[in-house]
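## Example record

The block below lists the input lines for one assembly entry, exactly as stored, with component labels intact.
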Amino acid sequence: MSAVVHAHDLVRTYGSGETEVHAVAGVSLELHPAELVVLRGPSGSGKTTLLNLLGGLDRPTSGTVRVGDVELTTAGEGALSTLRQRDVGFVFQSFALLPVLSAAENVEVPLRILRTPARERGERVAELLDLVGLSAHRNQRPYELSGGQQQRVGIARALAANPRVLIADEPTGQLDSATAEQMMTLIAGIVRARGVAAIVSTHDPKIAEHADRVLRMRAGRLE
Ligand SMILES: Nc1ncnc2c1ncn2[C@@H]1O[C@H](COP(=O)(O)OP(=O)(O)O)[C@@H](O)[C@H]1O
Ligand SMILES: [Mg+2]
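Predicted structure tokens for the full assembly:
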């Protein structure tokens, strides 16, 4: 199948002059539907910076990124925002759930932003909570859930808009190793069942065992 994400010679430089940091220093890659790519690399190697570029959260200093038909480098803010809402789902190490909302309400947020009708929202949220095994916890707030359960909510929320691309930045970084294993099994199953193109960063070698393809990053480049 043809790629959903095409990145060509991406560079992201922070600062200038003597304090210049080449966080991403010339990366090209493609992500394909139903493929789980694991991005390995030590802390500071540029994983987060690269993932933010791929998902349109940040713009490169040079190089190009295309998601579907949208060239992110030249897209306006409106087009980028639409892309982030519809085509790309993000999962964060710190879960990034809203503390005053229940599990179900957190999953519903992206659908409200997209103005999905109420009935359809309810059905989608129920389906997503079922997918991640949290139907029985739908009314609990994040602080009433374990770390693993919170990350399941994060995954359900990332999938709410039915994105083509799933980007997860160290999603297991705050979880114990058994829970991390379960999380990767869940993500791998979702990637294959739903045909989403996924990239997951980690510095944990065990996590890479779930990958269809492993990319290694060092000092801003892929090895
Ligand atoms: N907003 C920023 N401003 C300046 N330097 C940054 C910024 N974000 C990241 N960096 C630097 O870029 C490099 C790569 O960081 P990062 O992408 O977070 O790596 P990783 O996710 O692999 O730990 C590091 O040297 C980091 O200090
Ligand atoms: Mg990081």
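Residues 47-48, 169-170 surround magnesium ion (ligand 2) (CB under 6 Å). The chain has two domains: 1-87+163-223, 98-161.
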